[in-house]
From TrEMBL:
<protein>
    <submittedName>
        <fullName>Uncharacterized protein</fullName>
    </submittedName>
</protein>
Amino acid sequence: AARKEMERKSRLEWERQRMQELSSQKSRLLE
């Protein structure tokens, strides 16, 4: 169960990083 929790956490982290990268790209395009 612990490993599943870790996988879920890492996936959430990855999603968050990807969103940040996408938003930074968007802001660069808008400038």
